[in-house]
Design a protein that fits this description.
The complex is a heterodimer of chains A (about 160) and B (about 250).
Chain A: E1 5-12, E2 15-23, H1 28-35, E3 54-57, E4 60-63, E5 76-78, H2 91-98, H3 108-121, H4 127-133, H5 145-162
Parallel strand pairs in A: 1-5
Antiparallel strand pairs in A: 1-2, 3-4, 3-5
Chain B: H1 2-5, E1 26-29, E2 34-38, H2 49-54, H3 56-63, H4 68-71, H5 76-82, H6 90-95, E3 99-103, E4 108-112, H7 113-116, E5 117-119, E6 122-123, E7 130-137, E8 143-148, E9 159-166, E10 171-177, E11 184-185, H8 187-196, H9 207-220, H10 231-249
Antiparallel strand pairs in B: 1-2, 2-7, 3-4, 3-7, 5-6, 8-9, 9-10, 10-11
Helix pairs in contact in B: 9-10
The chains are: A alpha+beta (about 160), B alpha+beta (about 250).
Chain lengths: ~160, ~250
Amino acid sequence: MNPNSEIYNLRVNGKTHEIRDSWVGESLLFVLRERLNLPGTKGACEQGECGSCTVIMDGQAVCSCLVMAATAIESEIQTVENLSDGDSLTDVQDAFVTEGGVQCGFCTPGLVVAIEHLLSQNPDPSEIEIKEAISGNICRCTGYGRIFEAVDKAVSVRKAKTA
Amino acid sequence: MVEINFNHRKPTDVIALRRVDELKSIQIDTEKSQITIGAGLPYQQMEHGEIALHLPALAQAARTVGSPQIRSAGTIGGNLGTCSPAGDALPVLSALDATVNLQSAEASRSVSVHDFMVGVKRNARLPGEIIVSTTLPIVSGWQGYAKVGVRNAMVISVASCCLVVDRINGTIAVALGAVGPTIIRCRETESWLASQVDLKTKTTISPNLLQEFGTRIANESKPIDDHRSTAAYRRHAVCVLARRLLTRANSQ
């Protein structure tokens, strides 16, 4: 075993995972994708600009590329893989499909996580609050029009469900 | 973390401070009229609440940092540690004459932020020291922060300005970001303005005075041309930002 390797536990999607033989400088993004086989979280800019690696950590939306994985012990981490029960889409995911909020799709997991986080905090966001919530997620293909339409749809679907 | 992602650093040992709650505290001392903010408190928690109430300029600066994801990670300790002249909170710390509180295994010490910021990405932290917190005074009077970037979200500042009016003492403080090797305090303009108008009360600033204020501020800046902007534009930007903040200070 590498003398510089570390062993620690991470709580991801409700389960405890033992991370073995890792290097201490690995980002949470790297560990999720390469060690835990959770490739839904995307890596692109590696500097917090694109938002495609967004995960929920202790109730906050964070860029997993900016979190040193070994410092995330004792945190509850939720990735895009855990938003739905596996067989069906969440209302946000469904709205992205029906409103055409997906083109190349690379930014989509991060946007879906950011929007799920927004709606969990604020079920009836204003236009400016939506813009603010996804200001850290860059989509270069659809533009943002259809993404905003998808958020509006998810908001109304969720409201109808809880009404 | 970005430096590690880009292979600029290869640490073999890391001391993680993220879960040290003491570094995320907000201590309000009403007797001394000051607030001590833990170096690890995320910007997100400065946007509203007690800090926004007592240090509105800091709350405004916090809201301009990156994106929600960045604001849930970024801290004043990080801004001070990196000591980039474009660090969003740094002009606020400078305008408020903040104190940086440092701790090593042997000793603790407090340093004025003006002495702490030494140059571009250089500070006075000694090996073995960590930045524990920063102490800022609660000032009676208007204060604000403004920043220019190429868009609203996710930008590193092209130029920024913090203006603080102390109505009790009749003084003003103006600090500029991203227009010099480190944050610039415009002390000559500050004392010039105090000699021109009574800062203890809200006053009408004449257009000529406002113009000269902006020009003097721009003259105190030391911007450079780089990939983010030009020196000429930055000089213009701080002139406009400072005038705008002074106008707000006397209208609100």
